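Q: Focus on the chain.
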Amino acid sequence: MGRLVVACPDRPGIVAAVSRFLYTQGANIAQSDQYSTDHEGGRFFLRMEFHLAGLVERLAELDTAFAIAVGDPLGMEWRMIDAGRPKRVAILVSREDHCLLDLLWRWRRGELPIEIGLVISNHADLAEDVRRLDAPFEHVPVTRATRAGAEERQLALLAGRFDLVVLARYMQILSPGFLERVGAPVINIHHSFLPAFAGAGPYERARERGVKLIGATAHYVTEELDAGPIIEQDVIRVTHRDDTHAMARLGADIERTVLMRAVRRHCEDRVLLNGATTVVF
């Protein structure tokens, strides 16, 4: 199975051009999703899945041919992907285990199209749980004084080896230098319905404000704290009877579900960036 993901200025004939190209290459289109921000002067997004014999061996050749025939003439940004290859994923975590263990469990059950190659934590608490689930674990302590050295160690473990880095309740802020050098998108789970209650202590602030809904948000990490493009969100009702501990217990279920959905959608190439927002097919 192959995937083609496209973003470009909207104009007539895009779907026809892409479909014609795949047809001439002997491909059979199995699924197609498209979206335009505006049919006059907007931006067009397309995700196609297709069957093609010998895809793995032909992928580079196919990509070059697409560039010449369709991609470059139509001003496209695109990715031609072997959908049969699981994305290599690394996870960063602190002490809370609910998001991490949910991802590991689903990976072990074959429910996610990923290969978890490494878990890094700034605490050693979860080492045995991770190893019991057959994932490599690295303890990289982080303090204010050692932050730069810790990031260098993390980069040595990560850079160039992974397709995605997931922050599964990793309670540290990554530096702009780290994000530039890690060589992969980074997804974070934040325990509030962003843009409300960004930063630290969202459950405490939600309780103080008397909200009736709390939520979780999975987003791409950028230099601005909790402000990256949003991939997935969900909420759950709370009442005046719920203190911050009750909110955290309720929120934990939402956090792990939202993070799992975001990881799945990213790794199935369903998330396309549109400036500060996303198109999710």
In short: The two ends are 17 Å apart (CA to CA).
